[in-house]
């Protein structure tokens, strides 16, 4: 439990940071502008709001401790991003991306500037400026290079420009770039006029580690576009690639998404977690890989059984009814897994879900009673703070025989299984309360109040 002085210091810090509180939200595209959404609503910051936020951060730095450094650094980076996004305006975005308009040099510069908005927003823009620039062809190369060389542009936007530059070379391998293709050797190491000669050894000439990391991120983005073209979600790919080992992470993430199928974590959720700042690129790739294990379990659960050709109609009807129940169970578990991923953004938490589901399925078939009990136990965990959710699931899995004794389940039988499962819910709620007491040193009732069942 934090000391009294620490609680007072945190209260003072929150009060000082109040004018910059909107930086804790997420950027969204709204009516042709970038706004920031938090629990108060939408915020369209102007110059005065940016100045107040900067002043609040300077004042907060005077009273902050080492434990607050991560929060202040995140707010500073968000403020820098907000300054870059504030001037962007494109009320006619749908018209701007049309081929006739996208080929005009002035509109190309506007579209390249909007790459920063495309890669900053967790939710996709109504139209993709990156796709429009790719359709415009090689003439946009010089505008993209100008964005890549501009150090005031956020690194994720520069990575998206580099990805798009490589995709142009991938899409137009037969084109002659002597006129439109600039000399990239000073921008992306090893690119020169031959897009295929980039090697890691060319990065050794960087002046410092930061420049080397930036050059490595740009190289990986360029190589990804050169080898694969423009991905379906360019902003998500660019955000993954904007780290030194981004190319490896992007390949892992894309492979996991393709292998997981319909029961894996949706790409839109992974994009929201990554671009919203809730999960770093390595954690995003691990979340996608954790979704593969979950998808394998749920896919096997919904597999149609092989019945003999001479099976009777009642047997076939029973098999169809059981298959429908298993499908409903799998859909409910997939929805809860997505909610856990959005809440905790922790791969280790998601990795505990399949063993817990398997333990519950050992109690009996995926009936509505078992589904209701499993959903109730998982929703109790969602009411806990994200830092406690992994421990809660691990306790339920490792002590599963204590919470749901298999012998008692068999003794209850199918007719009484639902009532028996409901009788075990107070023990699960007691575990959640115990974890809260251990974490905070005080008795904090779960969300919803008291001993109310899920």
Q: What do these coordinates show?
A:
With about 450 residues, this protein is mainly alpha-helical. It has 3 domains: about 5-85, no CATH class; about 110-245, no CATH class; about 280-305 and about 315-440, no CATH class. Helix content is about 65%, strand content about 5%. It has 22 helices and 3 strands. The protein has helices spanning about 5-15, 45-65, 70-85, 95, 100, 105-115, 115-120, 130-135, 140-150, 155-170, 210-230, 235-240, 245-260, 265-275, 280-300, 315-345, 345-360, 370-380, 385-400, 400-405, 405-425, 425-440; strands at about 25-30, 35-40, 40-45. The protein has a 3-stranded antiparallel β-sheet with strand order 1-2-3, with no helix packed on it. A hairpin with a 2-residue loop joins β2 and β3 (about 40-45). α16 packs antiparallel against α17 (about 345-360) and α17 (about 345-360) runs parallel beside α19. The longest helix has about 30 residues, at about 315-345. The radius of gyration is 26 Å and the shape is globular.
Give a short synopsis of this structure.
This protein is mainly alpha-helical.
- CA-to-CA gap between the ends? 27 Å
The portion of residues forming beta strands comes to under 5%
Tally of contiguous helical segments: 22
Neighbour order of strands in the largest sheet:
1-2-3
Could you give a short account of the major beta sheet? 3 strands, antiparallel
List the domain count as a whole number. 3
Dominant shape: globular
Q: H/E order of the elements?
A: HEEEHHHHHHHHHHHHHHHHHHHHH
**Beta strand count:** 3
Structural class by helix and strand composition = mainly alpha
Kindly provide the radius of gyration, computed on alpha-carbon positions and rounded to a whole number of angstroms: 26 Å
Low-confidence stretches: 177-183, 189-208, 442-454
Helix content, binned percent: 55-70%
């Amino acid at each position: 439990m934090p000391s009294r002085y620490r609680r007072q210091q945190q209260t003072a810090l929150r009060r000082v940071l109040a004018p910059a509180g909107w930086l804790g939200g997420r950027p969204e595209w709204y009516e042709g502008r970038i706004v920031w959404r938090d629990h108060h609503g939408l915020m369209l910051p102007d110059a005065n709001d940016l100045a107040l936020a900067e002043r609040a951060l300077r004042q907060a730095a005077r009273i902050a401790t080492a434990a607050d450094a991560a929060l202040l650094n995140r707010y500073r980076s968000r403020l820098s991003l907000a300054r870059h996004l504030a001037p962007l305006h494109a009320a006619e975005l749908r018209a701007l991306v049309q081929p006739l308009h996208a080929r005009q040099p002035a509109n190309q510069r506007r579209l390249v500037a909007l790459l920063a908005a495309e890669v900053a927003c967790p939710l996709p823009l109504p139209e993709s400026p990156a796709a429009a620039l790719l359709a415009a062809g090689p003439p946009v190369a010089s505008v993209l290079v100008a964005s890549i060389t501009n150090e005031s542009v956020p690194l994720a936007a520069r990575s998206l420009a580099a990805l798009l530059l490589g995709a142009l070379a991938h899409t137009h391998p037969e084109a002659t770039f002597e006129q439109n293709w600039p000399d990239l050797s000073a921008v992306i190491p090893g690119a020169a006029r031959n897009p295929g000669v980039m090697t890691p050894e060319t990065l050794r000439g960087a002046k410092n580690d930061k420049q080397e990391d930036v050059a490595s991120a740009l190289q990986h983005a360029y190589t990804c576009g050169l080898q694969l073209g423009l991905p379906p979600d360019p902003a998500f790919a660019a955000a993954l690639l904007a780290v030194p080992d981004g190319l490896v992470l992007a390949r892992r993430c894309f492979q996991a998404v393709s292998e997981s199928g319909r029961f894996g974590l949706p790409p839109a959720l992974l994009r929201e977690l990554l671009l919203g700042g809730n999960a770093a690129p390595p954690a995003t790739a691990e979340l996608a890989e954790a979704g593969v294990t979950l998808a394998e379990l749920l896919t096997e659960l919904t597999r149609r059984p092989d019945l003999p050709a001479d099976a009777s109609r009642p047997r076939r009807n029973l098999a169809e009814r059981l298959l429908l129940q298993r499908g409903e169970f799998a859909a409910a578990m997939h929805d809860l897994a997505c909610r856990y991923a959005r809440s905790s953004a922790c791969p280790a938490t998601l990795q505990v879900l399949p063993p817990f589901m398997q333990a519950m399925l050992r109690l009996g078939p995926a009936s509505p009673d078992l589904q209701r009990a499993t959903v109730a136990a998982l929703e109790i965990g969602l009411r806990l703070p994200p830092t406690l959710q992994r421990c809660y699931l691990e306790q339920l899995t490792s002590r599963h025989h204590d919470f749901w004794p298999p012998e008692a389940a068999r003794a209850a039988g199918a007719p009484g299984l639902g009532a028996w499962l409901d009788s075990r819910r107070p023990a699960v709620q007691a575990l959640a309360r115990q974890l809260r007491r251990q974490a905070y040193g005080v008795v904090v009732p779960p969300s919803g109040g008291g001993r109310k069942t899920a």
